[in-house]
Amino acid sequence: MSDHAEERTPGVQQVNSVLHAVRILELFAAQGQEYLSLTQISRSLGIHKTTVYRLLRTLQSVGWVQQSESNGQYRLGSGILLAASAVTIRRTGHDLITEEMEQLAQRFHEMVVLATVHDGTGICVDLVKSRYNLSMMTAVGYPVPLNAGATGKTLLAAQPDDQVCRLTQHLPAAEISPLLETINQIRTQGYCFSEGEVDLGASAVAVPLHLGDTIYVMSISGPGERLRQIGYESLRIALQESVRRIQQKYVSLIHFGGVSG
């Protein structure tokens, strides 16, 4: 990585102290030795010793750097390790979901969608497309209506009550009552089926997926005729089994320090 960190994002005003701190952390990561002295860091990065000392003391105060009592040298602290572990868990958690989605798509040959709520809007954050050329055409990032279709209504049902009220307050009064009844039914059953509610002739089966504080919904969708042939119950069972496996692996990932199998 270049020492000229200021050039990383042209046109964006940089904060030199933050960039210098990042360069110090990157230097630790790049070195084969555990400890570095103040002089080594200063010479390697071309930053004055006084500046390096102030940065090290700041990083030390938040646990990102530790100083040896015996030799006065510095090493990475537990704070940065916790941050790195959190990144690993999130990335590996996404890998766990993608793996299950791909297996479902291979098994049923239909589109598998992962959706969540962002800034009050349902959105597709990942998908594995059907093998059929005539399957529904869509892409990551498309909006998911929360008041129609299995995916959207399951997303809505998975939100806390105050969120449900906020997300439905714009709807006509006549639509809110039946929608709330559907939400209660989804919460009781743990899944939702839909036919032709969003796209004509399209059906979907959806189940909620909770990973830590993040709420997702995973669904299988495609032409109604094909999904009825497979059987909504078979799709529902397969989705719920996938969700259970993802959640079990995710819990193990957290408990055992982000190590995945």
Structure overview:
The chain is of the alpha+beta class and about 260 residues long. It has two domains: about 5-75, Arc Repressor Mutant, subunit A; about 85-255, Beta-Lactamase (2-Layer Sandwich), CATH 3.30.450. The protein contains nine helices and eight strands. It has helices at about 15-30, 40-45, 50-60, 80-110, 150-155, 160-170, 175-190, 225-230, 230-255, and strands at about 65, 75, 110-120, 120-130, 145, 190-195, 200-210, 215-225. The strands form two sheets. The protein has a six-stranded antiparallel beta sheet, with helices on both faces. A two-stranded antiparallel ribbon has the order 1-2. A hairpin with a 6-residue loop joins strand 6 and strand 7 (about 200-210).
Attribute tags:
elongated; Beta-Lactamase; alpha+beta; disordered N terminus; 261 residues; 6-stranded antiparallel sheet; Arc Repressor Mutant, subunit A; 9 helices
Q: State the low-pLDDT regions, or none.
A: 1-9
Question: Tell me, what's the shape?
Answer: elongated
Taken as a percent bin, the fraction of beta residues is: 15-25%
Tell me the Rg in angstroms: 25 Å
Residue-averaged pLDDT? 83
β-strand number: 8
Q: How does CATH name the architecture of the largest domain? A: 2-Layer Sandwich
N-to-C series of helices and strands: HHHEEHEEEHHHEEEHH
- What is the C-level CATH assignment of the largest domain? Alpha Beta
| Order of strands across the main sheet | 5-4-3-8-7-6
Instruction: Kindly name the structural category.
Output: alpha+beta
In CATH, the topology of the largest domain is named Beta-Lactamase
- Helicity range: 40-55%
Distance between the termini: 31 Å
User: How many helical stretches?
Assistant: 9
> Could you say how many structural domains there are in total?
2
State the fourth-level CATH superfamily of the largest domain: GAF domain
